[in-house]
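Provenance

Sequences were taken from public entries as deposited. Structures were produced by running a predictor on each sequence independently, with no templates supplied. The record for ABC transporter substrate-binding protein from Streptomyces vulcanius is shown for reference.
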Amino acid sequence: MSRSGIRVLGAGLAAMAVVLSACSGGGSSASGGRQTLQLWFWGSSPQQQKTMQQVLVDGFDKSQSKYNLKVTFNNAVDKNVQVALSANEGPDIVYGSGPAFSAAYAVQDKLADMTPYAKKYGWKDRILAPMYESGTVHGKLYSLPNSINNLGVFYNKKVLAELGVGVPATYAELTAVMDKAAKAGMYPSVTGNKGWKPVNQNYISMFLTHVAGGKAVYDALQGKIKWTDPKIVKAVDDSAAFYKKGYLGGKDYANLNFAESMQLLAKGKSPFFFGPTLAFQFASDSFNDATGNTSDLGFAPFPNITPGLPSPSGTLGTTASLSINAHSANKDGAAEVIDYMMSEKFAQQMNRSWPGYWGVPLKNFDLDPASYTGLSKAYVQSVKDTVATVGKGNYGFFAGTFFPPATATAFTDIDGVWLGTESATDFLDKIQTTFAAEKAKGLVPPVPEPAG
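Predicted structure for ABC transporter substrate-binding protein:
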């Protein structure tokens, strides 16, 4: 949204005043001699906030006697963090939209090196290797992902039954179902980037995985091939063709967000929603016990488009990142909170009432789907399947998690190719220029090589 310079300046000053008035100052005193630890989080729903209070805040406070944790919820959290960190203020635990978000602050010395805490708590042994490495910059750890995320196909079982089809196993079957749905007056699929343009990264990442392949993207990240490689050009062109056929929300891609898309899926207006497993949390508003339709929602891998790629394969990412403020007076306490969140116990409890956001990326994700109900059961199963897929090396990379920050941001503008205002080669020429500058600065995380 365009704004005048005066409005931007005014908004920035207002944000500065609000944020600095809320800053913890690096560890304020609390009752009983405990120190207060601050975590700013996005403006989740009342039920989600209740879960956060009971499982994280109360659980952490009871687990030790030195700190009290305070979580503040606000939809402008990314902006508030940006303003606060620029003034060397802000929360002790820094929540961000992903490792690429955190890397940008790490190179500005706004985040603390967490490598000593990783050694103390054994995080590298506990966390899946690609997820751990995604938070490193210049060989040091600056963030940990709160959750493993995968891109795939949400589907409405009743709609597929009405169309007389099964769950698609191939790309040809998938597009055939979407064509049939369109002829029946439905959306071929529902999704959209209304209010959050980085949603675009989901879909270009998905095509990079299933057209170019995880190995090709890995080679580009290592500088072995350029982003203008024919395999990657084809992935960009295929994503544009997919968009132009109406396979991403029909004509309403710019007018829908994830919550509205899930509502349409629940109402039988489309057979599919393509997106990240974090969308289970949006689905819970439309597929729940009150509506009695939780069993209607299914999740499956997105099928490969290029023959011969490993199958099933996923696009690996995360929902958010957790870091320590370089100017916190309680870095040890902040590390304790993050360690508390990197546990199976925390994952077990959070996922009972908040599916979609807390698939803690543990190498041994031993949660039993049978012990859960509703969408939590389906979500936990999806995380276990993703962990197994990663174990086989069958994965690609989500831009916002594994690409350096400016490169990830540049991929957000893929919609220029989709809308026909820019060619794939021109788009990727700019990507290559941006990436080369970041690689020269050592901003590419050292991720493990996938199988293919």
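The chain is about 45% helix and 10% strand.
The first helix runs from residue 5 to 22.
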